[in-house]
Design brief:
The structure holds 2 protein chains of 2 kinds.
Chain A lengths: L21 H11 L4 E6 L2 E9 L13 E5 L2 E7 L1 H22 L5 H14 L11 E9 L4 E7 L5 E4 L1 E4 L3 H9 L8 H14 L9 E9 L2 E4 L2 H26 L1
Antiparallel strand pairs in A: 1-2, 1-8, 2-9, 3-4, 4-5, 5-6, 6-7, 9-10
Helix pairs in contact in A: 2-3, 4-5, 5-6
Chain B lengths: L7 H4 L10 E3 L2 E6 L2 E7 L2 E3 L2 E4 L5 E3 L5 E7 H21 L7 H17 L6 E7 L2 E5 L5 E3 L2 E3 L3 H4 L1 H7 L6 H18 L6 E8 L3 E4 L3 E2 L7 H4 L12
Antiparallel strand pairs in B: 1-4, 1-7, 2-3, 2-11, 3-12, 4-5, 6-7, 7-8, 8-9, 9-10, 12-13, 12-14
The chains are: A alpha+beta, B alpha+beta.
Pfam families (chain B): Proteasome
Organism (chain B): Triparma columacea
Function (chain B): Non-catalytic component of the proteasome.
Chain lengths: ~250, ~240
């Protein structure tokens, strides 16, 4: 990084001479070193899968969650710093509940995500504040349009709508794998299997720390956590498929 | 010159509910063998005018709680909004815990009592039911639980019938029949009642289910309705 450390990276209120805001880029770095997350919009819903890296063998399974519900029709996954992500989750819940109280209908996904991205963006505008070291993928159902959507909100405050997206350590490889999928042909179950497989594929079990998968989906108009049994099955199936593919590759090499 | 001493504090319009405006009448509830049933008609009156004939006054709160309300309908709507918001918060935690009927009953007691203590009550008498729970909270925060409960006119007209006919071993069909009988008497004698009703049940297996509204048969040929009273002219009506 050419101009790194030359005084332009001390505050998000300062641009570098070549027009960059280093504090925001550093925040994205915090996300990039986190476990891989994948979001897929499929035929009949949206699937979120994230890899939670376990920092200790003594952690209780299922603790410090990365996938959270925001409202009946929306949920999100967190990549990056869990505690920063929880800030986004809390804000998302607040916005969703305010929207229902005010307008009597569930918040349209675009509105919810715009408000969340404004919130994230605000933290890139002040010298006294620090951008969030977390990216949120929001899966939501639009009760008016009867349509599902997937948005990703980044530390910079950028928020785009995606068919498929990835964040964290394995995002580059994951994106390449997602591009190979025919998303509009997949059901939620198939989407879950595909997303789990992509996340597993980005791992090197010999090198990487132990992890736990977490998943949520938005289907039948509602958001929910993927039941533990269903996720475990998908994980087992994904591992088996990957092993088979590996064996086949080895056979070809011989 | 005393009138000059009237200040804003004494002349400003009051900011609290002094009387209800749009009201629902009686709610009935009873335990039977296997669950609890709640019944009410679908009328909301504006004073003595039968204004809204499709007001659903029995709602579900979560999977296994019923809430029936008599009194100010807008206050009931606001209570429902509050409970739904709390339920969503609870669902967001996604930790397997949920609020049961007894907890909802206790919470509503706290809310109703706080509001009456601020001299600004929510003008409702609420019947709360769960698979093995039946309780009442009134507009001043009084609570009780019982095998059968009736609010409003029902406490005069339905309670005597329930005292005579209720048994702990009643089947679902018998319970439904008894509630329909009570609602029929209420329709005959309570001028704020309607023959369009909803009956809801809550059981361990099936959770809380509220029926669609339906009309009950009435028969106005009984002598007390059809013949004149006190030797007066007319058809016996009021």
């Amino acid at each position: 990084m050419a101009s790194s450390g030359s005084g332009y990276d001390l505050s998000p209120t300062t641009f570098s001479p070549d027009g960059r805001i280093f504090q925001v880029e550093y925040a994205s770095k915090a996300v990039a070193s986190s476990g891989t997350s994948v979001g897929l919009k499929v035929k009949d819903g949206v699937v979120l899968v994230t890899e939670k890296i376990l920092t200790s063998k003594m952690l209780v399974p299922g603790s410090s969650r990365r996938v959270h519900g925001l409202d009946r029709h929306a949920g999100c996954s967190i990549t990056g710093l869990i505690s920063d992500g929880r800030q986004l989750v809390n804000r998302g819940r607040e916005e969703a509940s305010n929207y229902v109280d005010t307008y009597g209908i569930r918040s349209p996904p675009v509105v919810l995500c715009e408000r969340l991205s404004s919130f994230a963006h605000y933290f890139t505008l002040h010298g006294a504040l620090r951008p969030f070291g977390a990216t949120a993928m929001v899966a939501a159902y639009d009760e008016d349009e009867k349509d599902y959507s997937l948005h990703m909100i980044e530390p910079s405050g950028q928020a785009y709508k995606y068919y498929g997206c990835a964040a964290g350590k394995g995002r580059q490889g994951a994106k390449t794998e997602i591009e190979k999928l025919d998303l509009q042909a997949l059901s939620c179950e198939e989407g879950l299997a595909a997303a789990v497989k992509v996340v597993l594929q980005m791992r090197d079990d010999n090198k990487d720390k132990p992890m736990e998968l977490e998943a949520g989906w938005c289907r039948d108009g509602k958001y929910s956590k993927v039941p533990d049994g269903v996720l475990k099955d998908a994980e087992k199936k994904g591992r088996e498929e990957l092993e088979e593919e590996e064996d086949m590759d080895e056979d070809e090499d011989e | 010159m005393a009138s000059l001493h009237l200040n804003a504090a004494t002349t400003a319009p009051s900011q609290h509910t002094k009387y209800p405006i749009v009201t629902g009448t009686s709610v009935l509830g009873l335990r039977y063998d296997g669950g609890v049933m709640v019944a009410a008609d679908t009328l909301c009156s504006y004073g003595s005018m039968a204004k809204y004939k499709d007001a659903r006054r029995i709602r579900t709160v979560g999977p296994a709680t019923l809430l029936g309300a008599s009194g100010e309908y807008s206050d009931f709507q606001s209570i429902m909004d509050m409970l739904e918001g709390m339920e969503q918060q609870n669902d967001n935690f996604d930790d397997g815990h949920s609020t049961d009927a007894q907890q909802t009953h206790s919470y509503l007691r706290a809310v109703m009592y706080q509001r009456r203590s601020k001299m600004n009550p929510l003008w409702n008498d609420l019947v709360v039911a769960g698979p093995n729970f039946l309780g009442l909270v009134d507009k001043i925060g009084t609570t009780y639980t019982d095998n059968f409960i009736a609010t409003g006119f029902g406490s005069y007209l339905a309670i005597p019938i329930l005292r005579k006919k209720w048994r702990p071993t009643m089947s679902e069909g018998e319970a439904r029949g008894l509630l329909e009988d009570c609602l029929k008497v209420l329709f005959y004698r309570d001028c704020r009642a309607l023959n369009r009703i909803q009956i809801a049940k809550v059981t361990e297996e099936g959770g809380a289910v509220v029926s669609e509204p339906y009309e009950i048969e009435t028969d106005w040929s009984a002598a007390s309705f059809a013949t004149t009273k006190g030797g007066l002219e007319g058809d016996g009506g009021w």
